[in-house]
Amino acid sequence: MDWLALLQILDSTLRLATPLLLACLAGLFSERAGIFDIGLEGKMLVSAFLAAAIAAVTGSVWLGLLVGTLGSLLFAAIHGLASITFRGNQLISGVAINFLAAGLTVVVGQYWFAEGGRTPQLGQGQRFEQLTLPFAAEMRDIPVLGTLYAEVISGHSILTYMALLAVPLSWWLLYRTRFGLRLRAVGENPAAVDTAGISVRRLRFAAVGIAGLLCALAGAQLSTAEPAAGFIRDMTAGRGYIALAALIFAKWRPWTALGACLLFGFLQAVALRPALFEQTLGFRIQGQLLDALPYILTVVILAGFVGRAIPPRAGGEPYVKER
Amino acid sequence: MALDTVPAATAVPAIELRGISKAFGPVQANKDITLRVMPGTIHGIIGENGAGKSTLMSILYGFYHADSGEILVAGRPTRIPDSQAAIRAGIGMVFQHFKLVENFTVLENIVLGAEDSGLLRPSLARARRELRSLAEEYELEVDPDAVIEEIGVGFQQRVEILKALYRKADILILDEPTGVLTPPEADHLFRILRNLREQGKTIILITHKLREIMEITDTVSVMRRGEMTATVRTAETSPVQLAELMVGRKVLLNVDKVPATPREPVLEVENLRVVDAKGVERLKGVSLTVRAGEILGIAGVAGNGQSELLEVLGGTMRATGTVRMKGRPLDLTGREDARDRRDAGIGHIPEDRQAQGLILDFAAWENIALGYHARDAYSKGAMMDQAAMKADTADKMARFDVRPPDPMLAAKNFSGGNQQKIVVAREIESGPDLLLIGQPTRGVDIGAIEFIHKQIVALRDAGKAILLVSVELDEILSLSDRIAVMFDGRIMGERLATQTNANELGLLMAGVTEGAR
Fold first, then answer.
1. Are strands B76-77 and B68-73 parallel, antiparallel or unpaired?
2. Any CB–CB contact under 8 A between B166 and chain A?
């Protein structure tokens, strides 16, 4: 494998890891507060659709992102209402959101654009362009580090950089602020929070809201920042579930979440280049098998082959006040 | 009984409740409660389970809202709509089940909800300083950086007290604080409470243990069925009088029994060893014998191998060594299970009735049949005879005074004492030759304790063998004929109940033997 091919793979790794990372952090906030969120997938899908649709119609990708965010937050609010206010089953609520999103996006898409549930391809200005970071051109010729900076780090959408920034920000919020302490506490023992005189409901809604926001960014990355920008049906393709697997792999921590999502991104990037495998290994691997790699890893992780992961203790349980 | 001998109102009460009432659906948990707690005193509130003590204190802490009535804090009428308001009014509460975040440090738990600002660092630093001075002032040493799940319950309780003090509580409510503590830990807690009283704090102690009330309180209020039946000075009352006020009739505090007439050995245990999943040896060669017609009591601080002993004999844990039941060796390798043990004539009242003794969502009749459901009396061919089970349950409930006597009611809807009576009825009535009993009266009210003790003694007098495990030394001393003390997986010594006392047993429980003394 040559140096250039490696650079290309690393570059796609970062691009493909972006929606995973954002969704993973969304799940992290929600689950750390004790609310399971199977509905990451659905929220990403809603945001992806609305962002692309609004960008196509108005020509403004930022307006698209705003409306996509509102859509994702609305779905987050539904999840909150079902699982916090009415103490419903969080898994069922999440699954319902996924079905609702998968159906609505296609139906509304067909009604608006009549292209079989797709949105029109987004042109210049209607999508998030690749940003060239400062000094990228100048540093290109410095061996290794300079090249890495210019070819891998530089040249992504603003959403990728937001995702990368979200990692230290999440860590700081969770471990260095009052809000983070309370959020983590409510996912472990809501009764401790309640008896301290803090509203369990408000904290959990805040967490679910943050999850909605991050899912919105993840969805927008898929439909407005990929090379062929535009929405197609079910374009999240299970990324919400892969993000949940990455979350378990990362043991519900922000920095390890970055690592886990980069690993999944790497596998997806590799799967895009079957020729490279043939070249380095000397034999052909079935393309479908390569495509399945991230999902196989997901199964392996969920089967618990990566050591014991202890989830937040109050996860999945509605809080009921008791003596 | 009317309110009598209320302490003279020389000062303004720290807490005054006037006409507090609270109903949960049709159940009147608190009925027109009036209570005055004087500042700088330890005020006990005693009553049976379900008398309404915890409900009353939860109202005071803003966890529940009273339907009617008034709360005065230091003479001022105060509304307490939530816990934050209670904290502001200077009221702190230590719940029976701690409200701590298990994987947080002590410091984080103390700061939670009482942070100074949006950033944690300054709050944690201040809490660390404050904690040091509180520790010195009140004998409340804890390591601020220890993680809660890695420290003992005694320390966890101190963290709860520190939480309240850090929030500047002047009035501290403790709900059944000694339920989870060993005797030395309870002694330490009482020293802390006396210390707090000397510093001018007011303490409300909720308990159902008469001994604690007599030992530490200045004033005691008695509750029965949601009503405050009396408030008296502790110095002017007696355990017998308090028990009568609690239950509403005369109660025998000591077990009435004739000397035992032990006969042939029923259970013979030799060199029993258990290694747990972590590779720790929990039983290190235990040998004992229980004879027909006697009660062998196992004394010891919780966690010294008693639970493992019961589980091995009850058929739910593997071990090595030999156990003979009426001369026949029992299998210890896991091939025989709890049902085989029952068929061998061993009844078992497990230590934790809610986890091991009952299925809480099942009706009383299903729980009464549990484990014996395959017996002929409950069967019609291959089918269960539900009618027979229900009729039998109604009969047992009547004879064991289970209230309410409704076979269709789910086990979780009975009080702790009545749940235990269901388990006791099931195991005693199955006609065992040997009855294993773990903590028979944990969380059970006085009236039910008296009843359960009588049943155990009656079974002994009927010539059955009984192995009794209890962490309550009083219970061991009053029920047993012979007493074996367990410490660190070993039997430290055996004594005849008539020839020993709490002091001698206490030393054995701490692992001190004659040679070392």
1. antiparallel
2. no
